[in-house]
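Hi there, hope your week has been kind to you so far. Thanks so much in advance, here it is:
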Amino acid sequence: MAAAAAAKRLSVAHQQTRFALCLAAALCLAAAAMRLSVVHSPVLSGKITRNTLQDMEIAPPRSDLPFSSPAAIPQRPSMATADDIRLSISHQTRFALRLAAAISSPSKAPATNRAFSPLSLHVALSLLAAGAGGTTRDQLLAVLGGGPAAAESLHALAEQVAHVVMADGSAAGGPRIEFADAVFFDKSLRLNPAFEEIAVGKYKAETHSVDFREKAAEVSDQVNSWVEKVTSGLIKQILPPGSVNQRTRLVLGNALYFKGAWTKKFDASKTRDGEFHLLDGSSVQAPFMSSKDDQYMASYDNLKVLRLPYQQGGDKKQFSMYILLPKAQDDLWSLAEKLRSEPEFLDKHIPAWKVPVGQIKIPKFNISYGFEASKLLKSMGLELPFSGGANLSEFFDSHMRQRLFVSSIFHKSVVEVNEEGTEAAAATAIVVGLTSVGHRMTMDFIADHPFLFVIREDTTGVVLFIGHVVNPLLAP
Protein backbone atom coordinates (compact mmCIF):
# COMPACT_ATOMS: atom_id res chain seq x y z
CA MET A 1 0.00 0.00 0.00
CA ALA A 2 2.91 2.30 0.80
CA ALA A 3 4.43 1.36 -2.53
CA ALA A 4 1.24 2.27 -4.35
CA ALA A 5 1.08 5.63 -2.62
CA ALA A 6 4.71 6.17 -3.41
CA ALA A 7 4.10 5.39 -7.04
CA LYS A 8 1.43 8.07 -7.27
CA ARG A 9 3.53 10.69 -5.51
CA LEU A 10 6.21 11.16 -8.07
CA SER A 11 4.34 10.42 -11.21
CA VAL A 12 3.24 13.86 -10.29
CA ALA A 13 6.60 15.47 -11.00
CA HIS A 14 5.88 14.93 -14.56
CA GLN A 15 2.42 16.22 -14.55
CA GLN A 16 3.97 19.56 -13.71
CA THR A 17 6.78 19.17 -16.24
CA ARG A 18 4.35 18.83 -19.09
CA PHE A 19 2.19 21.60 -17.74
CA ALA A 20 5.35 23.65 -17.85
CA LEU A 21 6.28 22.57 -21.34
CA CYS A 22 2.79 23.42 -22.39
CA LEU A 23 3.18 26.95 -21.24
CA ALA A 24 6.52 26.74 -22.88
CA ALA A 25 5.21 26.56 -26.37
CA ALA A 26 2.72 29.15 -25.22
CA LEU A 27 5.17 31.95 -24.79
CA CYS A 28 7.56 30.18 -27.05
CA LEU A 29 9.20 27.40 -25.13
CA ALA A 30 12.57 25.91 -25.15
CA ALA A 31 13.76 22.49 -24.32
CA ALA A 32 13.50 19.40 -22.24
CA ALA A 33 15.83 16.52 -22.50
CA MET A 34 16.21 12.99 -23.69
CA ARG A 35 19.83 12.30 -24.25
CA LEU A 36 21.65 14.31 -21.62
CA SER A 37 24.82 12.40 -20.79
CA VAL A 38 26.43 14.89 -18.43
CA VAL A 39 23.34 16.47 -16.87
CA HIS A 40 20.92 13.66 -17.56
CA SER A 41 17.18 13.97 -16.94
CA PRO A 42 16.13 10.51 -15.68
CA VAL A 43 12.50 11.62 -15.71
CA LEU A 44 12.37 12.54 -19.39
CA SER A 45 14.58 9.68 -20.55
CA GLY A 46 12.46 7.07 -18.81
CA LYS A 47 15.50 5.80 -16.90
CA ILE A 48 14.49 7.06 -13.51
CA THR A 49 15.48 4.74 -10.68
CA ARG A 50 14.25 4.27 -7.13
CA ASN A 51 17.26 6.15 -5.79
CA THR A 52 17.23 9.10 -8.20
CA LEU A 53 15.61 11.61 -5.83
CA GLN A 54 16.45 9.80 -2.63
CA ASP A 55 20.10 10.46 -3.48
CA MET A 56 19.57 14.20 -3.98
CA GLU A 57 20.58 14.91 -0.36
CA ILE A 58 18.20 17.85 -0.16
CA ALA A 59 18.54 20.09 2.85
CA PRO A 60 15.66 19.93 5.37
CA PRO A 61 12.64 22.11 4.56
CA ARG A 62 12.93 25.74 5.66
CA SER A 63 11.20 26.69 8.86
CA ASP A 64 11.32 30.49 8.78
CA LEU A 65 7.93 31.00 7.10
CA PRO A 66 4.89 31.17 9.39
CA PHE A 67 2.32 28.40 9.18
CA SER A 68 -1.15 28.35 10.61
CA SER A 69 -0.73 24.82 11.89
CA PRO A 70 1.97 22.14 12.01
CA ALA A 71 2.11 19.51 9.28
CA ALA A 72 3.91 16.23 8.91
CA ILE A 73 6.58 16.84 6.29
CA PRO A 74 8.29 13.90 4.61
CA GLN A 75 12.02 14.43 4.23
CA ARG A 76 12.19 12.89 0.76
CA PRO A 77 9.58 12.18 -1.90
CA SER A 78 8.60 8.70 -2.94
CA MET A 79 9.51 7.50 -6.39
CA ALA A 80 7.18 6.62 -9.24
CA THR A 81 7.72 3.96 -11.86
CA ALA A 82 8.89 4.87 -15.35
CA ASP A 83 5.49 3.79 -16.72
CA ASP A 84 3.68 6.15 -14.35
CA ILE A 85 5.94 9.00 -15.38
CA ARG A 86 5.53 8.36 -19.10
CA LEU A 87 1.74 8.36 -18.66
CA SER A 88 1.90 11.69 -16.82
CA ILE A 89 4.10 13.12 -19.56
CA SER A 90 1.59 12.15 -22.24
CA HIS A 91 -1.20 13.93 -20.32
CA GLN A 92 0.89 17.06 -19.92
CA THR A 93 2.01 16.98 -23.56
CA ARG A 94 -1.60 17.17 -24.72
CA PHE A 95 -2.24 20.06 -22.35
CA ALA A 96 0.97 21.75 -23.54
CA LEU A 97 -0.12 21.67 -27.16
CA ARG A 98 -3.54 23.11 -26.36
CA LEU A 99 -2.07 25.93 -24.31
CA ALA A 100 0.54 26.61 -26.97
CA ALA A 101 -2.15 27.04 -29.58
CA ALA A 102 -4.06 29.38 -27.24
CA ILE A 103 -1.11 31.68 -26.42
CA SER A 104 1.63 31.42 -28.99
CA SER A 105 0.89 33.37 -32.17
CA PRO A 106 2.58 36.35 -33.86
CA SER A 107 -0.63 38.38 -33.55
CA LYS A 108 -0.53 38.25 -29.72
CA ALA A 109 2.35 40.75 -29.46
CA PRO A 110 5.04 40.15 -32.09
CA ALA A 111 7.34 42.88 -30.75
CA THR A 112 7.06 42.00 -27.06
CA ASN A 113 9.41 39.98 -24.86
CA ARG A 114 7.54 37.55 -22.65
CA ALA A 115 8.34 35.33 -19.68
CA PHE A 116 6.16 33.42 -17.26
CA SER A 117 6.35 30.66 -14.69
CA PRO A 118 4.41 27.50 -15.51
CA LEU A 119 5.38 26.22 -12.06
CA SER A 120 3.69 29.13 -10.28
CA LEU A 121 0.53 28.86 -12.39
CA HIS A 122 0.35 25.10 -12.00
CA VAL A 123 0.70 25.14 -8.22
CA ALA A 124 -1.89 27.92 -7.80
CA LEU A 125 -4.41 26.10 -10.01
CA SER A 126 -3.75 22.85 -8.16
CA LEU A 127 -4.52 24.61 -4.87
CA LEU A 128 -7.73 25.92 -6.45
CA ALA A 129 -8.61 22.33 -7.39
CA ALA A 130 -8.20 21.35 -3.72
CA GLY A 131 -11.11 23.66 -2.88
CA ALA A 132 -13.32 22.71 -5.80
CA GLY A 133 -15.96 20.01 -5.96
CA GLY A 134 -18.02 18.11 -8.50
CA THR A 135 -17.67 18.92 -12.18
CA THR A 136 -15.71 22.10 -11.40
CA ARG A 137 -13.02 19.99 -9.76
CA ASP A 138 -13.08 17.49 -12.61
CA GLN A 139 -12.66 20.27 -15.17
CA LEU A 140 -9.68 21.71 -13.32
CA LEU A 141 -8.03 18.30 -13.10
CA ALA A 142 -8.66 17.64 -16.78
CA VAL A 143 -7.13 20.96 -17.86
CA LEU A 144 -4.12 20.46 -15.60
CA GLY A 145 -3.33 17.20 -17.34
CA GLY A 146 -5.19 14.33 -15.69
CA GLY A 147 -8.59 12.82 -15.08
CA PRO A 148 -10.89 12.80 -12.06
CA ALA A 149 -8.42 10.66 -10.10
CA ALA A 150 -5.49 13.08 -10.57
CA ALA A 151 -6.04 15.24 -7.46
CA GLU A 152 -3.77 13.20 -5.23
CA SER A 153 -1.02 13.36 -7.86
CA LEU A 154 -1.34 17.14 -8.15
CA HIS A 155 -1.07 17.62 -4.40
CA ALA A 156 1.85 15.18 -4.20
CA LEU A 157 3.63 17.22 -6.86
CA ALA A 158 3.04 20.42 -4.91
CA GLU A 159 4.47 18.73 -1.83
CA GLN A 160 7.59 17.63 -3.71
CA VAL A 161 8.07 21.08 -5.23
CA ALA A 162 7.64 22.88 -1.91
CA HIS A 163 9.85 20.57 0.13
CA VAL A 164 12.48 19.39 -2.36
CA VAL A 165 12.72 20.98 -5.81
CA MET A 166 12.35 24.57 -4.58
CA ALA A 167 14.31 24.15 -1.36
CA ASP A 168 16.85 26.95 -0.96
CA GLY A 169 20.40 25.86 -1.83
CA SER A 170 22.28 29.12 -1.26
CA ALA A 171 23.90 28.06 2.02
CA ALA A 172 25.88 25.41 0.12
CA GLY A 173 26.67 27.54 -2.92
CA GLY A 174 23.62 26.69 -5.04
CA PRO A 175 20.85 28.98 -6.26
CA ARG A 176 19.01 31.14 -3.78
CA ILE A 177 15.36 30.09 -3.90
CA GLU A 178 12.21 31.29 -2.17
CA PHE A 179 8.91 29.50 -2.76
CA ALA A 180 5.68 30.13 -0.88
CA ASP A 181 1.91 29.68 -1.03
CA ALA A 182 -0.70 31.62 0.90
CA VAL A 183 -4.45 31.57 1.50
CA PHE A 184 -6.10 34.88 2.41
CA PHE A 185 -9.72 34.32 3.50
CA ASP A 186 -12.45 36.52 4.94
CA LYS A 187 -12.66 36.49 8.72
CA SER A 188 -16.41 35.84 8.60
CA LEU A 189 -15.73 32.35 7.22
CA ARG A 190 -13.93 29.28 8.51
CA LEU A 191 -11.69 27.18 6.30
CA ASN A 192 -12.83 23.63 5.71
CA PRO A 193 -10.45 21.50 7.86
CA ALA A 194 -9.91 19.08 4.95
CA PHE A 195 -8.84 21.88 2.61
CA GLU A 196 -6.67 23.49 5.29
CA GLU A 197 -4.92 20.18 5.90
CA ILE A 198 -4.00 19.92 2.20
CA ALA A 199 -3.03 23.59 1.88
CA VAL A 200 -0.78 23.64 4.94
CA GLY A 201 0.50 20.06 4.84
CA LYS A 202 1.11 19.64 1.12
CA TYR A 203 1.58 23.19 -0.15
CA LYS A 204 3.24 24.67 2.97
CA ALA A 205 0.69 27.47 2.63
CA GLU A 206 0.35 30.27 5.13
CA THR A 207 -3.26 31.05 6.06
CA HIS A 208 -4.37 34.60 6.84
CA SER A 209 -7.77 35.64 8.21
CA VAL A 210 -8.52 39.09 6.74
CA ASP A 211 -11.36 41.60 6.42
CA PHE A 212 -12.40 41.87 2.77
CA ARG A 213 -15.75 43.45 3.61
CA GLU A 214 -14.47 46.54 5.40
CA LYS A 215 -10.77 46.69 4.45
CA ALA A 216 -10.49 45.35 0.90
CA ALA A 217 -7.83 47.87 -0.15
CA GLU A 218 -5.71 47.07 2.90
CA VAL A 219 -5.97 43.34 2.19
CA SER A 220 -4.87 43.94 -1.39
CA ASP A 221 -1.84 45.80 -0.06
CA GLN A 222 -1.17 42.90 2.33
CA VAL A 223 -1.15 40.38 -0.54
CA ASN A 224 1.11 42.62 -2.62
CA SER A 225 3.49 43.06 0.31
CA TRP A 226 3.63 39.29 0.81
CA VAL A 227 4.53 38.82 -2.86
CA GLU A 228 7.13 41.59 -2.70
CA LYS A 229 8.78 39.95 0.31
CA VAL A 230 8.93 36.45 -1.20
CA THR A 231 10.25 37.77 -4.54
CA SER A 232 12.89 39.95 -2.87
CA GLY A 233 11.27 43.10 -4.24
CA LEU A 234 11.28 42.07 -7.92
CA ILE A 235 7.48 41.97 -8.00
CA LYS A 236 5.87 44.71 -5.96
CA GLN A 237 2.29 44.32 -7.13
CA ILE A 238 0.36 41.25 -8.26
CA LEU A 239 -3.14 42.56 -7.46
CA PRO A 240 -3.99 45.74 -9.40
CA PRO A 241 -6.19 48.43 -7.79
CA GLY A 242 -9.84 47.43 -7.64
CA SER A 243 -9.21 43.71 -8.20
CA VAL A 244 -10.24 42.98 -4.59
CA ASN A 245 -13.45 44.39 -3.13
CA GLN A 246 -16.04 43.84 -0.41
CA ARG A 247 -17.45 40.85 -2.28
CA THR A 248 -14.08 39.04 -2.37
CA ARG A 249 -13.90 36.12 0.03
CA LEU A 250 -10.63 34.40 -0.85
CA VAL A 251 -7.26 34.99 -2.54
CA LEU A 252 -4.90 32.10 -3.31
CA GLY A 253 -1.31 33.20 -3.82
CA ASN A 254 1.90 31.60 -5.05
CA ALA A 255 5.24 33.37 -5.30
CA LEU A 256 8.76 32.24 -6.13
CA TYR A 257 12.22 33.75 -6.40
CA PHE A 258 15.28 32.29 -8.12
CA LYS A 259 18.82 33.66 -8.22
CA GLY A 260 21.44 31.43 -9.76
CA ALA A 261 25.04 32.05 -10.80
CA TRP A 262 26.37 30.47 -13.98
CA THR A 263 28.74 27.57 -13.44
CA LYS A 264 31.16 29.54 -15.62
CA LYS A 265 30.42 33.27 -15.45
CA PHE A 266 30.83 35.58 -18.42
CA ASP A 267 33.64 38.13 -18.24
CA ALA A 268 31.90 41.52 -18.02
CA SER A 269 34.95 43.24 -19.54
CA LYS A 270 34.31 41.32 -22.77
CA THR A 271 30.69 42.41 -23.11
CA ARG A 272 30.32 44.46 -26.30
CA ASP A 273 27.49 46.10 -28.18
CA GLY A 274 26.44 44.30 -31.33
CA GLU A 275 23.64 44.12 -33.85
CA PHE A 276 20.44 42.29 -32.84
CA HIS A 277 18.05 41.68 -35.74
CA LEU A 278 14.35 42.23 -35.07
CA LEU A 279 11.37 40.40 -36.55
CA ASP A 280 10.45 43.33 -38.78
CA GLY A 281 13.84 43.28 -40.52
CA SER A 282 15.33 46.23 -38.64
CA SER A 283 18.07 45.95 -36.01
CA VAL A 284 19.23 47.50 -32.73
CA GLN A 285 22.56 47.76 -30.93
CA ALA A 286 22.45 45.56 -27.80
CA PRO A 287 25.06 44.47 -25.20
CA PHE A 288 26.26 40.91 -25.89
CA MET A 289 28.02 38.63 -23.42
CA SER A 290 30.74 36.43 -24.96
CA SER A 291 32.84 33.42 -24.04
CA LYS A 292 35.47 31.08 -25.50
CA ASP A 293 34.83 28.28 -22.99
CA ASP A 294 33.47 24.92 -24.13
CA GLN A 295 29.67 24.88 -23.93
CA TYR A 296 26.80 22.40 -23.98
CA MET A 297 25.58 22.98 -27.54
CA ALA A 298 23.77 21.07 -30.27
CA SER A 299 23.22 22.09 -33.88
CA TYR A 300 20.45 20.92 -36.21
CA ASP A 301 19.33 21.91 -39.71
CA ASN A 302 17.28 24.90 -38.63
CA LEU A 303 18.04 25.20 -34.92
CA LYS A 304 20.82 25.55 -32.36
CA VAL A 305 20.38 24.80 -28.66
CA LEU A 306 22.61 26.09 -25.85
CA ARG A 307 22.52 24.92 -22.25
CA LEU A 308 23.88 27.24 -19.54
CA PRO A 309 24.06 25.42 -16.17
CA TYR A 310 23.87 27.20 -12.83
CA GLN A 311 26.21 26.45 -9.92
CA GLN A 312 25.11 23.47 -7.82
CA GLY A 313 24.78 23.47 -4.06
CA GLY A 314 25.24 20.61 -1.63
CA ASP A 315 22.39 18.57 -3.06
CA LYS A 316 22.09 16.86 -6.43
CA LYS A 317 19.76 19.42 -7.99
CA GLN A 318 20.95 20.99 -11.24
CA PHE A 319 19.24 24.09 -12.62
CA SER A 320 19.92 25.21 -16.18
CA MET A 321 18.82 27.75 -18.77
CA TYR A 322 18.21 26.50 -22.31
CA ILE A 323 18.23 28.83 -25.31
CA LEU A 324 16.60 27.67 -28.56
CA LEU A 325 17.88 29.75 -31.46
CA PRO A 326 16.22 29.29 -34.88
CA LYS A 327 18.57 29.51 -37.86
CA ALA A 328 16.52 32.12 -39.71
CA GLN A 329 16.28 35.58 -38.16
CA ASP A 330 12.50 35.67 -38.55
CA ASP A 331 11.75 32.02 -37.69
CA LEU A 332 10.64 32.41 -34.06
CA TRP A 333 6.95 31.69 -34.73
CA SER A 334 7.76 28.72 -36.99
CA LEU A 335 9.81 27.26 -34.15
CA ALA A 336 6.92 27.81 -31.75
CA GLU A 337 4.56 26.07 -34.19
CA LYS A 338 6.96 23.15 -34.52
CA LEU A 339 6.91 22.74 -30.74
CA ARG A 340 3.12 22.73 -30.88
CA SER A 341 2.77 20.28 -33.75
CA GLU A 342 5.51 17.75 -32.92
CA PRO A 343 5.07 16.25 -29.43
CA GLU A 344 8.56 14.71 -29.36
CA PHE A 345 10.40 17.77 -30.64
CA LEU A 346 11.56 19.03 -27.26
CA ASP A 347 12.90 15.71 -26.06
CA LYS A 348 15.05 15.31 -29.15
CA HIS A 349 16.85 18.66 -29.14
CA ILE A 350 18.94 18.89 -25.99
CA PRO A 351 22.76 19.18 -25.95
CA ALA A 352 24.33 15.96 -24.65
CA TRP A 353 27.92 17.14 -24.18
CA LYS A 354 30.23 20.12 -24.32
CA VAL A 355 31.78 21.23 -27.61
CA PRO A 356 34.62 23.67 -28.30
CA VAL A 357 33.38 27.19 -28.90
CA GLY A 358 34.43 29.30 -31.83
CA GLN A 359 32.29 32.28 -30.86
CA ILE A 360 29.40 32.61 -28.42
CA LYS A 361 27.33 35.78 -28.07
CA ILE A 362 24.27 36.05 -25.81
CA PRO A 363 22.44 39.35 -25.29
CA LYS A 364 21.78 40.57 -21.79
CA PHE A 365 18.07 41.05 -21.20
CA ASN A 366 15.55 42.00 -18.56
CA ILE A 367 11.89 40.95 -18.98
CA SER A 368 8.87 41.85 -16.89
CA TYR A 369 5.57 40.48 -18.14
CA GLY A 370 2.17 40.12 -16.52
CA PHE A 371 -1.27 39.09 -17.69
CA GLU A 372 -4.75 38.14 -16.50
CA ALA A 373 -5.23 34.46 -17.37
CA SER A 374 -9.02 33.99 -17.20
CA LYS A 375 -9.75 34.37 -20.93
CA LEU A 376 -6.86 32.12 -21.87
CA LEU A 377 -7.98 29.35 -19.53
CA LYS A 378 -11.60 29.69 -20.67
CA SER A 379 -10.47 29.22 -24.28
CA MET A 380 -8.93 25.93 -23.20
CA GLY A 381 -12.16 24.67 -21.69
CA LEU A 382 -11.72 25.79 -18.07
CA GLU A 383 -15.01 27.65 -17.78
CA LEU A 384 -16.85 26.41 -14.69
CA PRO A 385 -14.64 28.08 -12.01
CA PHE A 386 -15.38 31.48 -13.58
CA SER A 387 -19.14 30.98 -13.86
CA GLY A 388 -22.15 31.26 -11.59
CA GLY A 389 -22.28 27.47 -11.65
CA ALA A 390 -18.85 27.09 -10.04
CA ASN A 391 -18.61 24.53 -7.26
CA LEU A 392 -15.96 25.77 -4.83
CA SER A 393 -17.59 23.98 -1.94
CA GLU A 394 -14.44 22.59 -0.32
CA PHE A 395 -12.84 25.87 0.71
CA PHE A 396 -15.12 26.84 3.57
CA ASP A 397 -17.17 25.17 6.23
CA SER A 398 -20.11 27.50 5.53
CA HIS A 399 -23.52 27.71 3.87
CA MET A 400 -22.15 30.52 1.64
CA ARG A 401 -19.59 28.30 -0.03
CA GLN A 402 -21.82 27.45 -3.02
CA ARG A 403 -21.99 31.12 -4.07
CA LEU A 404 -18.27 31.47 -4.82
CA PHE A 405 -16.61 31.83 -8.22
CA VAL A 406 -13.19 32.82 -9.56
CA SER A 407 -13.29 36.46 -10.64
CA SER A 408 -9.71 36.73 -11.92
CA ILE A 409 -6.28 35.07 -12.10
CA PHE A 410 -3.27 37.38 -12.20
CA HIS A 411 0.25 36.26 -13.12
CA LYS A 412 3.51 38.17 -13.40
CA SER A 413 7.12 37.15 -14.02
CA VAL A 414 10.46 38.97 -14.05
CA VAL A 415 13.63 37.48 -15.58
CA GLU A 416 17.02 39.25 -15.75
CA VAL A 417 20.02 37.63 -17.44
CA ASN A 418 23.53 39.09 -17.19
CA GLU A 419 27.20 38.05 -16.91
CA GLU A 420 26.79 36.74 -13.36
CA GLY A 421 23.72 34.56 -13.91
CA THR A 422 19.96 34.91 -13.64
CA GLU A 423 17.61 36.58 -11.18
CA ALA A 424 13.94 35.75 -11.66
CA ALA A 425 10.66 35.91 -9.81
CA ALA A 426 7.02 35.03 -10.41
CA ALA A 427 3.70 35.37 -8.67
CA THR A 428 0.16 34.13 -9.24
CA ALA A 429 -2.97 35.32 -7.46
CA ILE A 430 -6.40 33.71 -7.84
CA VAL A 431 -9.22 35.96 -6.63
CA VAL A 432 -12.41 34.23 -5.49
CA GLY A 433 -15.54 36.22 -4.79
CA LEU A 434 -19.29 35.96 -4.48
CA THR A 435 -21.40 35.54 -7.62
CA SER A 436 -23.92 38.31 -8.20
CA VAL A 437 24.07 14.85 -31.30
CA GLY A 438 27.27 15.96 -32.55
CA HIS A 439 30.97 15.72 -33.40
CA ARG A 440 33.96 17.24 -31.65
CA MET A 441 34.11 20.42 -33.74
CA THR A 442 34.18 24.13 -33.10
CA MET A 443 30.67 25.58 -32.99
CA ASP A 444 29.37 29.14 -32.87
CA PHE A 445 26.26 30.33 -31.05
CA ILE A 446 25.36 33.88 -32.05
CA ALA A 447 22.00 34.78 -30.50
CA ASP A 448 21.63 37.96 -32.58
CA HIS A 449 17.94 37.44 -33.42
CA PRO A 450 14.75 36.36 -31.57
CA PHE A 451 15.00 33.17 -29.50
CA LEU A 452 13.19 31.08 -26.88
CA PHE A 453 14.42 30.18 -23.39
CA VAL A 454 13.47 27.95 -20.47
CA ILE A 455 14.82 27.61 -16.92
CA ARG A 456 14.33 24.21 -15.34
CA GLU A 457 15.64 21.78 -12.74
CA ASP A 458 17.19 18.97 -14.79
CA THR A 459 17.04 16.08 -12.33
CA THR A 460 13.26 16.18 -12.01
CA GLY A 461 12.44 18.08 -15.19
CA VAL A 462 10.42 20.73 -13.28
CA VAL A 463 10.25 23.95 -15.33
CA LEU A 464 10.41 27.26 -13.46
CA PHE A 465 10.35 29.88 -16.22
CA ILE A 466 9.74 30.04 -19.97
CA GLY A 467 9.81 32.94 -22.39
CA HIS A 468 11.06 34.50 -25.60
CA VAL A 469 13.20 37.52 -26.48
CA VAL A 470 12.39 39.55 -29.58
CA ASN A 471 14.30 42.68 -28.57
CA PRO A 472 16.77 42.66 -25.64
CA LEU A 473 16.57 46.46 -25.35
CA LEU A 474 12.86 46.58 -24.49
CA ALA A 475 12.39 48.05 -21.03
CA PRO A 476 10.70 45.80 -18.46
